[in-house]
């Protein structure tokens, strides 16, 4: 069922521009595929989620992974992975919007003045154009609040270094 949902999400996605395959090929050619990090233990995931607001601490990470399928069409998440149509999301929590090195952000993103945390990411993925009308991102948004919570919690576990 998860595979069907992921494939359906990919088929319905309108989030990325036609240049995705070009950017993906460019990223793959410019940087070797980074090794996937070792899987986090349940305790490590719990520790990472403890740094988020309470609603995220009990999120359904499997649902978050399913929801993230749409994001993967434009974003990479592994440390050292190249950019695609969108920037690499490794280390996104705590990063100022528009500052991922090497990514060609729009002037609107560079001047957004937001540091990414659970709340700002939630606002962003609910409706990017409402937060930044000049964004190049064509993603229309995720309306279901529970899906956003699950996705953000999952994102935290795949874009953050393992806790000590």
Topology (SSEs and partners):
Blueprint: H1 2-12, H2 20-30, H3 42-49, H4 54-57, H5 61-68, H6 107-110, H7 118-126, H8 128-131, H9 145-159
Helix pairs in contact: 5-9, 7-9
Tags for this model:
164 residues, mainly alpha, 9 helices
| Percentage of residues in strands | under 5%
Number of strands: 0
Determine Rg (CA atoms, Å): 15 Å
Contiguous helical run count: 9
**Uncertain parts:** 1-29
Per the principal axes of the C-alpha atoms, what is the gross shape? Answer: globular
Q: In which range does the helix fraction lie?
A: 40-55%
Give the overall pLDDT as a whole number. Answer: 83
| Distance from first to last alpha carbon | 35 Å
Q: What class, by secondary structure content? A: mainly alpha
> What summary fits the major beta sheet?
none
Order of helices and strands: HHHHHHHHH
Task: Produce a short descriptive summary.
With 164 residues, this protein is mainly alpha-helical. The chain is built from 9 helices and no strands.
């Amino acid at each position: 069922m998860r595979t069907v949902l992921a494939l359906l999400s990919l088929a319905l996605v309108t989030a990325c521009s036609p240049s995705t395959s070009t950017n993906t090929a460019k990223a793959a050619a410019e940087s070797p595929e980074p090794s996937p990090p070792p899987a986090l233990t349940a305790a490590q995931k719990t520790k990472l989620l403890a740094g988020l607001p309470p609603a995220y601490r009990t999120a359904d990470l499997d649902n978050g992974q399913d929801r993230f399928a749409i994001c993967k069409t434009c974003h990479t998440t592994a440390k050292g992975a190249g950019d695609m149509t969108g920037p690499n999301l490794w280390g996104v929590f705590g990063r100022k919007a528009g500052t991922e090195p090497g990514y060609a952000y729009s002037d609107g993103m560079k001047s957004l003045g937001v540091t990414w945390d659970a709340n700002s990411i939630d606002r962003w993925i609910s409706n990017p154009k409402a937060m930044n009308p000049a964004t190049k991102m064509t993603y229309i948004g995720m309306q279901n609040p529970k899906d956003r919570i699950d996705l953000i919690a999952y994102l935290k576990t795949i874009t953050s270094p393992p806790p000590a």
